[in-house]
Amino acid sequence: MPKWLASHAFVLTMLVVMLAAGFWQLDRLDARKASNEEIRTASESRVVPVEDLLALVGAGEDVLDQTAVTVTGRFLDEPGLLVANRTFDTEPGFWFVAPLELDDGRIVLVSRGWIPRDVAAGRSPQQIEAADGWVTITGRLFASVDGGRLGSPVNGVPQVSRLDLDTAQDAIGLEVVDRWVQAEDPDWRRGVIPIPVARPPLDEGPHLSYAFQWFFFSTSTVIAYALILRRRRADAAIPRNDQ
Question: What are phi and psi of 10, to 5 degrees?
């Protein structure tokens, strides 16, 4: 293959890759916007008792993640469950998940919030705030998260990598409904454990700026290569002085 043809092929390949990366970032931006709108619609909807939403799920209706929900029941005297590798203000820890029994006997897993590692391990004077008797929890409803794996118990409490409800059932030995609740409390304050998990930020992320960067790189490549070719052509046009 001639040298000039190889250089053309290389530059063309790089352009295709950079343009594809730019359009991929734009696709991710569109997906992010759609996800944000879905979250906003679900979380700002009328708060509904969990029993009503579970009935819709049982009837095959589509219930969006982040749907606002209330759960009324009592937490069981079980050790609960830890979801690993969760952070709060960059501090590592766990989500503390507790089984809550509804009035009809069904059990809903409720993520009460984030706890530090030393609290989970029993090495801190702080303790998980008790929730005795019948309680009403306001939160957001979620479907099971696939791919959860069992980990080593922490201070006797089972640990999972993700809130996969099948894995959670195996861990705690209880049958639970096929949705779980993330508790939230707008009046939480630092020092109360667990700390409710905040809603995800509804920003558009860095995708637009990344797309502009890739398009800038591709444009710069075209300009730079055009200048190189122009310089080569000019050099080729200069007659050589034979000695």
Answer: -65, -50
Q: How far is CA 133 from the centre of its chain?
A: 33
Model confidence pLDDT, tens digit, residues 49-106: 999 999 999 888 888 888 889 999 999 987 789 999 999 888 999 999 999 999 999 9
3-class state of residue 103 by DSSP: coil
For residue 226, the one-letter residue type is A
Q: Which residues of 73-96 are buried (b: 16+ CB within 10 A; e: fewer)?
A: bebeeebbbbbbebebeeeebbbb
SS3 65: coil
**116 by DSSP, 3-state: which?**
strand
Give CA–CA dist 224/142, Å, rounded.
51
For residues 169 and 7, the answer to whether their CB atoms sit within 8 Å is no
Dist. CA 26–CA 41, nearest whole Å: 23
**What pLDDT band is residue 114 in, cutting at 50, 70 and 90?**
very high
Helix or strand or coil: residue 84?
strand
Residue 94 contacts residue 168 (beta carbons within 8 Å): no
Rounded to a whole number of angstroms, the distance between the first and last alpha carbons of the chain is 31
